TrEMBL record:
PANTHER family: GLYCINE BETAINE/PROLINE BETAINE TRANSPORT SYSTEM ATP-BINDING PROTEIN PROV, GLYCINE BETAINE_PROLINE BETAINE TRANSPORT SYSTEM ATP-BINDING PROTEIN PROV. This is Glycine betaine/L-proline ABC transporter ATP-binding protein. It comes from the Bacteria. InterPro entries: AAA+_ATPase, ABC_osmolyte_uptake_ATP-bind, ABC_transporter-like_ATP-bd, ABC_transporter-like_CS, Gly-betaine_transp_ATP-bd, P-loop_NTPase. Belongs to the ABC transporter superfamily. GO terms for molecular function: ATP binding. Keywords: ATP-binding, Nucleotide-binding, Transport. Residues 32-268 form the ABC transporter domain. SMART domains: AAA. CDD domains: ABC_Pro_Gly_Betaine.
Length: 356
């Protein structure tokens, strides 16, 4: 994955209320908890001193409960909500310094939003709804319809081009919303809890659709959700928010395996660890007689996959990376990860050996 940031956010604040600008610069006020800040100033800090980078080609998930500030945060990225303080850059360009013309170009061409509420035009067909953003850009009718038809096929709506939104299911309507965002070929897709109103089965289908699109296109995505399972399924990295702050930022494995505090620990308590943790967490050095024996698993295989391999073979499994045995996992170490008693090995302790 390219480590060049698409979005770079530093010290971002969004404060609602009277004289909101004074809050970020006053150490005494920034130290107050949300209730004290409201009582003393009448202000609410929806986003509090948040910093992160979104890398090119990654799915960056912002997760938190209702009121944590996640939706406000994603709207600040394109100034649908104006930040109070801090910096936002896209490809190194200062978003907060953009004039109206540059901001319009950002929203039309570079960062497209997919909302929870589809916002489809009821009098327009699926084809014309998907082509709407291209129409706003000034593209000719024949060209935009051709482009829209291509994207409609990509999201699995081929054959429904001439239906109107009222003739579609909720999942189909959300696919139209996704296609409309994809049609303008944005550098980054911003999802604001797009699937929370869908039935569980349809929601799972849409999650799989996002995974497929990301795998096929490698497009950068920022995904907002309150659902931990959704975050773990979709995210390359997750920023977990509480009361406007990011309390932990890391990979799904880091969030589940090494919670930053009691709040995060309680958040991930019921997560099936074996479905998130990888064998890197459980592996130990191979002995001389183990590096060429037993089934092979990848370093990024889940503990669940390794348990199945060990159970089938009745023997420890080798962890093989690029033809080299970098470790061994057995039933004891794997069950230790499931139980939460196995601690990750310090970096650099693996002893690579040539795999036979």
């Amino acid at each position: 994955m390219d480590t060049t940031p698409v979005f770079s956010v530093e010290g971002l604040w969004k404060v609602f209320g009277p004289k909101a600008d004074r809050v970020p610069g006053d150490p005494e006020l920034t130290a107050l908890d949300p209730a004290e800040l409201r009582s003393r100033t009448g202000c609410t800090a929806a986003v509090r001193d948040v910093s992160f980078d979104v890398r090119k080609g990654e799915v960056f998930v912002v997760m938190g409960l209702s009121g944590s500030g996640k939706s406000t945060l994603v709207r600040c990225l394109t100034r649908l909500i104006e930040p109070t303080a801090g910096t936002i850059a896209i490809d190194g360009e200062d978003v907060r310094a953009m004039d109206r013309s540059r901001l319009r170009e950002l929203r039309r061409h570079r960062a497209a939003m997919v909302f929870q509420h589809f916002g489809l035009l009821p009098h327009r067909t699926v084809l014309d709804n998907v082509a709407y953003g291209l129409e706003i850009q000034g593209m000719g009718k024949a060209e935009r319809r051709e482009k829209a038809a291509e994207v409609i096929a990509k999201v699995g709506l081929e054959g429904l081009e001439h239906r109107r939104p009222g003739q579609l299911s909720g999942g189909q309507q959300q696919r139209v919303g996704l296609a409309r965002a994809l049609a303008v070929d944005p550098e980054v897709l911003l999802f604001d809890e797009p699937f929370s109103a869908l039935d569980p089965l349809i929601r799972r289908e849409m999650q799989e659709e996002v995974i497929r699109l990301h795998r096929d296109e490698g497009r950068t995505m920022v995904f907002i959700t309150h659902d931990l399972q959704e975050a773990l399924k979709l995210g390359d990295r997750i920023a977990l928010m509480r009361d406007g702050r990011v309390v932990q930022l890391g990979t799904p494995e880091e969030i589940v395996g090494s919670p930053a505090d009691d709040y995060v620990r309680d958040f991930v308590r019921d997560v099936p660890r074996e479905q998130v943790m990888t064998v890197r967490t459980a592996m130990r050095r191979p002995s001389a007689d183990q590096d060429g024996n037993g089934p092979a698993v990848r370093p990024d295989a889940t503990v669940s996959e390794a348990i199945e391999a060990v159970a089938r073979a009745g023997a420890p499994a080798r962890v093989v990376d690029k033809g080299r045995c970098v470790g061994v996992v057995d039933s004891d170490t794997l069950l230790g990860v499931v139980a939460g008693t196995e601690q990750p090995a310090p970096p650099g302790t693996e002893q690579p050996k040539e795999a036979v």
